[in-house]
Design a protein that fits this description.
274 residues; Metallo-beta-lactamase, Chain A; globular
Length: 274
């Protein structure tokens, strides 16, 4: 029996003798089946192939963890060091003894919170190695491919995780799409960890919002307005997206608001303007 991992999205499935016929997450219109068709691997195979994780400090108390070479969607996780127990934001597929040892040197791990199903990856493996609890929004329950006792589904629009750390449901990309607000980040000015529920674009003065990124399916103006309204009361100087260099380093709060306004204007533009 193996816990098979989808090569395209990195999601790990419940144990089975043979891999599933297809990955429901990749078959969904927000994702895609890889150009070479549905392919599978395992943690053991990844380790044999030389994948490893690296650690990079992003700012005091915030450590990035990413896989080399890039695997699946290529996101990196973020570890918040907190006196009430460290929090891992988002997740990626590779976990090995070296990664576990590195995180233990940083103080271990008590909670895992994930923005949306594309980053569920091997979350159950991570939770079991650290005796941690996984926090997912209940609106995305159907996308859990490997159930586990360590998963807690929360409901509503906000969930206080630790002192100064709160999860906020924004929806959009997925119904349960979540961001994490860390009040103590950026020297007390606040940080938002967004995955790609809010994604940092190439011009890092801006962000964007999509139903599907690889298939370029936009969100309706009303949904982007709702996201804007839910973010506006939060105080944050910096925003960290899902990949190493996708960071809005300064005035991130203003960047999100003006980006939402720009997005809505673009959707409402009159045909004769185009």
């Amino acid at each position: 029996m193996e816990h098979w991992i989808c090569v395209t999205c990195g999601t790990q499935f419940a144990a089975s003798e043979q891999p599933p016929e297809a990955c429901p997450i990749c078959s969904d219109e927000r994702q895609y089946i890889g150009y070479n068709g549905q392919q599978w691997t395992t943690l053991t195979q990844m380790q044999k192939e030389g994948f490893r994780n690296e650690f990079k400090e992003q700012e005091p108390g915030l450590i990035g963890v990413g896989t080399i070479p890039s695997f699946a969607i290529g996101e990196r996780a973020l570890l918040i060091q907190h006196e009430q127990g460290n929090v891992l934001w988002d997740c990626m597929s590779l976990i090995d003894d070296e990664t576990v040892a590195g995180i233990k040197r940083l103080g271990g791990l008590s909670a895992i919170a994930i923005s949306h199903p594309h980053y569920y990856s091997t979350m159950v493996e991570w939770a079991e190695r650290f005796n941690a609890t996984i926090y997912l929004h209940e609106a995305d329950r159907q996308w859990v491919m490997r159930p586990g006792e360590r998963i807690t589904f929360w409901s509503g629009e906000t969930y206080p995780l630790k002192e100064g750390i709160t999860l906020h449901r924004l929806g959009g990309h997925f119904a349960g799409g979540t961001v994490l607000h860390w009040e103590q980040g950026a020297g007390g000015k606040g940080v938002l960890l967004s995955g790609d529920i809010i994604t940092v674009v190439s011009d890092r003065r801006y962000v964007s919002f999509m139903y599907s990124y690889p298939n370029l399916i936009p969100l309706p103006a009303a949904v982007v307005q709702r996201i804007r309204d839910r973010v506006e009361p939060l105080a944050f100087e910096r925003l960290y997206g899902a990949w190493w260099e996708r960071v809005v380093a300064r005035d991130a709060h203003k960047a999100v608001l003006r980006s939402a306004d720009r997005y809505i204007r673009a959707l409402q533009r009159a045909p004769e303007e185009l």
